[in-house]
Write a structure and sequence with these properties.
The structure holds 2 protein chains of 2 kinds. Chain A is an all-alpha fold. Chain A has 12 helices and 2 strands. In chain A, helix 3 packs parallel to helix 7, helix 3 packs across helix 9 and helix 7 crosses helix 9. Chain B is 37% helix and 17% strand. Chain B has 14 helices and 14 strands. The chains are: A mainly alpha, B alpha/beta.
Chain lengths: 284, 386
């Protein structure tokens, strides 16, 4: 019966995942948007089901800290993405085009090895490295140099984020570089282009979708994080996630938290649209 | 296309319906007059070690109430846990060891229910100001029993901070710039308000938890200025311990617990209660509105407030019992500990401490409603730290 009615088979196959997607994912987003338009009774903590844009008005009020926090979150996410792209490109290039089979395998393991340890363990490891009596100051002291003071600053966050998300940039960049046929590079050489010119006109444009694909990971992972700011951030290091967390945890102001959580959703929407234009989804 | 839209709407409607909490069920009956047989189980939301096995194990053996713990890291987490699953403890939790900055929120939020203190024999022995304190008793109705309390102290590194500090001014001045830490908690505003109350009488602050708009603004201004001097805001006791241990900070606000842990690790750390006095916490075991095991909950409140258990808990956590009869048990376990924790002093000592309480719009001292509520405090705190 099923083979005579292929649409029945397709419906049967697709219904469970589509329904789960709609209910869990789209449903959650809809609830987020809907509740961002409510408010909360400040004393009892009960929801007030009364439609208003006051949460959003508060977020976009420049007298409030929320735009500054969103700006900081985006700024550090962008800095981390750029750092990872700069670090991952030469590494990916070496792995894809220069290293032999054995060296490539070793490099792969080294890139992926940190992912075997918990993310929290790696952040705590960085805390001990950066701490006042940590590995860096110990080394600096041994060399007779003055102490660094980057523990609990935005610089510390930048370093730790760049470190934890690096593998997510290396892999797509490697994949994109590996896919460039040797014949393109030979053709470029035949037409008289030197190394740099080939890099600029052939390799970079072809690798760009891989970089953009990697940047989706590094940017969105940084944008949504709230643990790293808690553990290695300084006095002015709150991210969007920290504010969302404190609004829910401290006075159960879920509507405001939802409204603020809409901001990264919008940012990622814009980012993904641009990434799609640049062909990132073909490199995933 | 229309079909998809309708499906979207339907699913959204279902999802919304699922998320709107059911209205709290009122119990309707009066206070219990006797404690019945235990239900075999007791679910606690607690500060870590508030049901330490050293005294919880004998309780489980005596009553048959098996304890299931949920450790919370902050007052806010406690409130969030109590409000999960439709509020009132979600029909899952029986008791919460709420501090004063959470207890009124739970009472006015309808998450806890009245408790008959006549069923708690030790209650009449408590220090007088912990029998019906404003943070757990509203209009003569008790919503739990006090259990332990302690001051917030000024912790410092004895090798790096000389001379020893005597004023909270040490964490607002630039002398130890970049080496200071304070808790990441809106209630910290009260510490600044207390300092201003003593140093700037012109502001007219009478109670650090009842601040008018200009008074709150003054505290916020002081804290914004303090932010530039901080190494960081600490998020958990272990965080602060680590920072003192590795030298990232040399002075800051904390609890005796941190000091005890650091001293046990042989770190050169001491603490003091500065001359401006201090804020403090007082914890209450509160009974959840929808507690599934009320008898076990009453048995627990009765058990933990008796002198021998109060003494054990005080020494495990580093805090002071509300029951002065615990004194002899403390000294037996650890010589001089009763005096160390100020339990031998008359009640006047605990009266000098400004205990945490949730700020509300209704000001007690000026009988008006123009004080800033906790929502305003939390937003001010986001302003300061964000």
């Amino acid at each position: 019966m099923l083979w005579r009615r292929p649409w029945l088979k397709a419906t049967g196959l697709l219904t469970p995942p589509v329904a789960a997607f709609l209910l869990v994912y789209v449903g959650a987003l809809v609830v987020l948007f809907v509740s961002s338009l409510w408010t909360v009774d400040s004393f009892t903590g009960k929801l007030v089901h009364h439609w208003t844009l006051s949460n959003f008005r508060q977020i976009f009020d420049t007298g409030q800290p929320y735009l500054r926090i969103a700006g900081r979150t985006m700024g550090i996410a962008a800095a981390v993405t750029l750092t990872d792209a700069v670090l991952a490109f030469p590494l990916g290039y070496f792995m894809a085009r220069i290293a032999g089979g054995r060296a490539r395998a070793v490099l792969f393991v080294m890139v992926l090895l940190p992912l075997w340890a918990s993310y929290l363990v790696r952040i705590y490891a960085w805390r001990t490295i950066l701490a006042h009596d940590g590995a860096i100051n110990w080394t600096l002291g041994g060399l007779g140099l003055p102490d660094q003071n980057i523990a609990y600053t935005n610089w510390a966050m930048w370093i730790v984020f760049s470190y934890v998300w690096l593998p997510f940039m290396v892999l797509p960049v490697y994949a994109a570089l590996e896919r460039i046929p040797d014949s393109y590079i030979e053709a470029s050489a035949d037409m008289g282009a030197r190394g740099l010119r080939t890099l600029r006109s052939v390799i970079l444009p072809l690798a760009l979708p891989g970089v953009i694909a990697g940047s989706i990971f590094t940017f969105s992972l940084t944008l949504g994080d709230f643990i790293t700011p808690l553990l290695v951030g300084g006095p002015s290091s709150s991210f969007i996630g920290n504010v969302v967390y404190s609004f829910i945890g401290i006075n159960a102001n879920i509507p405001f938290a939802a409204a603020f959580a809409v901001i990264p959703v919008l940012i990622m929407g814009v980012y993904l649209t641009i990434a799609r234009r640049l062909g990132a989804f073909e490199a995933l | 296309m229309t079909r998809i839209n309708r499906a979207h709407v339907l699913i959204a409607a279902v999802a919304v319906a699922l998320c709107v909490p059911a209205a709290g069920v009122s119990s309707g009956h009066g206070l219990p007059t006797t404690i019945g047989k235990g239900e075999g189980s007791l679910n606690l939301i607690e500060w870590a070690a508030y049901s330490d096995p050293s005294f919880a194990k004998p309780f489980e053996r005596q009553t048959g109430c098996k304890i299931h713990r949920k450790d919370a890291g902050s007052s806010n987490e406690m409130v969030a846990l109590m409000r999960s699953g439709g509020g009132g403890g979600g029909g899952q939790y029986d008791l919460v060891s709420a501090s004063g900055d959470a207890s009124l929120r739970l009472i006015y939020g309808g998450d806890v229910q009245p408790v008959n203190v006549k069923l708690i024999p030790s209650w009449k022995d408590f220090l007088p100001n912990f029998r019906s304190p404003a943070h757990n008793t509203v209009k003569g109705v008790h919503y739990g029993v006090s259990v332990q309390w302690g001051p917030n102290t000024l912790i410092y590194n004895t090798k790096k901070v000389k001379p020893a500090p005597t004023s909270w001014g040490a964490i607002y001045s630039s002398k130890y710039k970049g080496k200071i830490t304070v808790p990441n908690n809106p209630i910290q505003i009260a510490d600044a308000a207390l300092y201003l109350m003593k140093t700037k009488p012109s502001l007219g602050i009478k109670d650090p938890y009842e601040l008018t708009k200009p008074q709150l603004d003054a505290a916020v201004k002081l804290l914004k200025q303090q932010k530039g001097l901080l190494k960081r805001y600490w998020n958990s006791a272990t965080d602060e311990i680590a920072d003192f241990k590795n030298g990232d900070v040399v002075i800051g606000a904390g609890w005796p617990y941190q000091t005890l842990q650091l001293q046990a690790a042989k770190a050169p750390i001491s603490e003091t209660i500065p001359k401006e006095s201090t804020t403090g916490w007082a914890d209450t075991w509160m009974l959840a509105k929808r507690a599934p095991h009320p008898n076990c909950a009453y048995l627990w409140m009765k058990y933990v407030t008796q002198p021998s258990v109060e003494a054990k808990q005080a020494l495990v956590f580093g805090e002071t019992p509300v029951n002065p009869k615990a004194c002899s048990f403390m000294n037996k376990a650890q010589k001089g500990s009763c005096a160390d924790y100020h339990l031998n002093e008359p009640a006047s000592y605990s009266k000098t401490i400004f205990f945490w309480k949730t700020p509300i719009a209704q000001c007690g001292w000026q009988k008006s409603s123009d004080c800033m509520d906790y929502n305003a405090w939390q937003q001010a705190w986001t302003q300061i730290t964000g």
